[in-house]
Amino acid sequence: MQLNQKFSITSFLILLSIIVLLTGCGRWTKRGGPYKFSSYRFQCVIPNDWMQDYDYKFIITRDGLSLQKITVERIKVNEKLSGTKKTFKKGMSALEQAETIIDNNKSNTSIFNYTVISNKPAIISGDNGFRLVTEYRTTEDVRYRNVSYGFMKGDLFYIISYNSPIRYYFDKDINTFEEFVKSFSLY
Amino acid sequence: MNRFFTITLLLLASCAQQQKIDNVMSDKYKLEEDEKRIWARSAEEQEVIEESGFIYEDKEANEYVNKVALSLFDKTVHGKIKFSIRILKNPYSNAFAYPNGVIYIHTGMLARIENEAQLATLLAHEMTHITHRHALSGFRNLKSKSIYIAAVGNLGASASINGYSRICENEADTEGFRLMVKAGYSPNEATQIFSHIKDELSEENLNEPFAYGTHPHLQDRINNYKNLIAGLADKHGRATNERIYRNKISRLLIDNSTLDIEAGRFVTAEKTIDKYISFFPSKCEGYYLKGKLIYQKGSEADTAKALLFFEKSVSLNSSYAEPYKEIGYINFKLNNKKKASAAFKKYLSLKPNAQDSEYIKEYINQCN
User: Fold this and answer.
1) Cβ-Cβ contacts under 8 Å, A109 against chain B
2) Which residues of chain A are within 8 Å of residue B54 when distances are taken between CB atoms?
3) Average per-residue pLDDT in chain A?
4) What is the mean pLDDT of residues B299-306?
5) pLDDT digit string, tens, across residues A35-65
6) Which residue has the higher pLDDT, A3 or A164?
7) Distance of alpha carbon B203 from its chain centroid, rounded?
8) Per CATH, is A25-186 categorized as 1.10.540.10?
9) Is B64 helix (H, G, I), strand (E, B) or coil?
């Protein structure tokens, strides 16, 4: 009997661990309003009713990551990128930064029909940078549009992106994203 | 992109215990029911590839590789299997065959190959996998093994010309070699394919990409070819068609170097660009890419050297827009505002709808 109880507790814990693992470890928190992300030392205003996941990287969504997401990434100079072997170099112009991002995405064979729609200079939080609009198709045949603002500050490259399926969802939150970028600043 | 490698995975299964399956040349050849399903799955995967944006469309290169493939078998075989050679925009050396006759070759592989004899070696090898129905024997062997479930969906981009079992690869090497020699190509070129793969592995600091213990190692395969060559009575005086090959793939060399530069594979890119310049010294594109490559290195000396290549490029073709942008940019950084402005303006006049025109206009404003 005791052995059975012990077995049940052990089984329960294993089962619980499996459920936790299978359902993912996401800690989604509903947020809205001014927010400071201390890991990257930036502040912003999170749109109302959007949810945030993880503490170590910045990612927010309202309806789910595959429907819309805003991310902020910080990449160090000379840090390895996912697609290209090129890296960001100190003193790169905005055009060179944008081209590095384009080359990185072009070298990613898991996204199809990658196309640059527009690539223009932009000011982000007072710094010279770029605004890049691209489109691509996933292996599941969903077409996405991505708007990214990027800029360099010293040894760090920042990229703020909005990613959403072109059909229906993209237009819904593009203005929210532009407001988010306006609220973004380093501290 | 992994999705379309699942069929190729089936080919990884060991053919060691393969049943006797008649090859396509046999009078007894008939498409089997399970084979039809493999073909159908292949067609689905090919549809994904064809719509991926990775197909390399250059007509001349495509027609050429298909023409070489056509010459390797007689009409009877082509009547049974409709071979189609497709080129993929991918700078990594690779090629793979689907059982229904469709073969994909990466631009990176074609850029490394030096002549038609080497191309014929590669094609004959891949076509033999198809004519000898290695996918079917692999599939039937897999069905009897529990690794089937674990294996499907787990192939990834490592599927390559080395992606079959040892026995299947040896058969494709031997039969492919016989075909290329019969077609009149120089047998001595056959081993070069593996030298190219070895070069790539060394440039990428990779070990041999054989996750599966049954696959013959590169050196074993080189030795295998050397034995085949040694067994031939007449080894010399046959065709390589180097000049024809280089002319047919000249555009591809430039396009693949661009992919290499985008991927940051500078050592590989430089080799191809140098090859292109030596083949086509009067063409502007090679000097432009060489300049771009040198400029990426970033030192002051490199910048001055890169500028010379860009200037050489425009001296050969004054209506080629790309180098003007680089000349403008380098002069802008060197504070030669007048030269920078003139080059930027020339770039925009040649390419008014350039994607980066907003940046260039801003540079011109800053030059004033």
Assistant:
1) 1, 54, 90, 157
2) 109, 112
3) 89
4) 88
5) 999 999 999 999 999 999 876 789 999 999 9
6) A164
7) 16
8) no
9) helix
Query: Min CA distance, B284 vs chain A (Å)?
Result: 22
Model confidence pLDDT, tens digit, residues B93-123: 999 999 999 999 999 999 999 999 999 999 9
CB contact under 8 A, A83 and B263: yes
Q: Is the Cβ of A89 closer than 8 Å to some Cβ of chain B?
A: yes
Q: Three-state SS for B335?
A: coil
Residues of B in contact with A116 (CB under 8 A): 355
Which strand (E) or helix (H) includes residue B275?
Answer: helix B266-279
State how far the Cα of A150 lies from the Cα of B183, in Å rounded to an integer.
55
List chain B domain ranges. 2-242, 321-368
Q: Is 70 exceeded by the pLDDT of residue B158?
A: no
For residue B52, pLDDT beyond 80: yes
Query: How much is the pLDDT for B77?
Result: 94
Minimal CA separation from B266 to chain A, in Å: 9
Residues in chain A: 187
* Sign of the C-alpha dihedral computed for residues B309, B312, B318 and B320 taken in this order: negative
- Give the up-direction half-sphere exposure of residue B295: CA atoms within 13 A in the CB hemisphere: 22
* B235: β partners: none
**Domain residues of chain A, as ranges?**
25-186
Q: Is B359 within 8 Å of A107 when comparing Cβ atoms?
A: no
Q: How far is B356 from chain A (nearest CA, A)?
A: 6
B355 vs A94, A112, A116: nearest CB: A116
